[in-house]
Write a structure and sequence with these properties.
Blueprint: H1 12-29, H2 31-47, E1 61-63, E2 68-70, E3 74-76, E4 89-96, E5 103-105, E6 110-118, H3 130-133, E7 136-142, E8 148-155, E9 162-164, E10 171-172, E11 177-181, E12 185-190, E13 196-197, E14 204-205, E15 211-214
Antiparallel strand pairs: 1-15, 2-4, 2-14, 3-4, 4-12, 5-11, 6-7, 6-10, 7-8, 8-12, 9-11, 13-15
């Protein structure tokens, strides 16, 4: 049943209750409106689903922190508030639309060295300016070998709430849940030096399962084509 009906994220229960009550009121007002409410309630449950994921376990792997579409992979400077320097790093961005799972997971094993929330705009999360201008919550994860990786939750055009329950000093495991973003958004991962991206723009990723980079890879960054 967990495969057919995924568990609901705790954050979703209050929204589901609100949608259910509103549906009852719509039925009382006019039955056709009530059936629209049923559809919206079902969508609410679908949006807040939190399925079990099977995370690959091997040192050096970087796992996708979110479900969604891989955006163009570029070099960019990590958010200044994390204190990671001004040297550009390879950035892998995942865009989540309203039909994707919105639970965010740690891309790698490590200790949270910094967390910083910044208010901002609500531009379309799929455009590059969103990484700089939009509301965001940034995490710096320190690896056992001394390197670090940044994970940035970015609000989108519809999203109005970033949730992060991780704390500074907490140790996260790859694939472990640390937060979510409501209703359409984006997550950026700034890789450490030596980590080779193994995904390409346009590819779909599965949070907690898809390997997006590998520090042990000897191949060049991958490219892809539609077939």
């Amino acid at each position: 049943m967990r495969n057919v009906v995924p568990p609901l994220h705790p954050e979703g229960w209050k929204f589901l209750a609100i949608f259910a009550v509103a549906t009852l009121l719509l039925f009382w007002i006019w039955e056709p409106l009530g059936w629209i409410g049923v559809i919206l309630t079902a969508w609410c449950a679908y949006f807040f689903r939190d399925p079990v994921r099977f995370t690959p376990l091997r040192a050096g792997l970087v796992i996708s922190p979110a479900d969604g579409r891989i955006e163009p992979i570029v070099e960019a400077v990590p958010p200044a508030e994390l204190g990671m320097g001004d040297k550009p790093r390879v950035r892998v961005s995942i865009f989540m639309d309203v039909f994707d799972v919105h639970v965010n997971r740690s891309p790698i094993d490590g200790e949270i060295a910094a967390i910083d929330y910044r208010p901002g705009k609500f531009l379309n999360a799929s455009i590059d300016k969103a990484s700089i201008d939009n509301e965001r919550n940034s995490l710096r994860i320190l690896l056992d070998d001394g390197r670090d990786v940044a994970v940035v939750q970015i609000a989108g055009l519809i999203a109005r709430r970033i949730l992060c329950h991780a704390r500074i000093g907490q140790r996260l495991l790859a694939g472990e849940r640390f937060g979510m973003i409501r209703f359409g958004s984006r997550v950026d991962v700034y890789l450490a030096e030596g980590m080779v991206p193994l995904v390409s723009a346009g590819q779909r990723s599965i949070g907690g399962e898809t390997v997006i980079a590998d520090s042990r890879a000897t191949e060049p960054p991958r490219s892809a084509a539609t077939r």
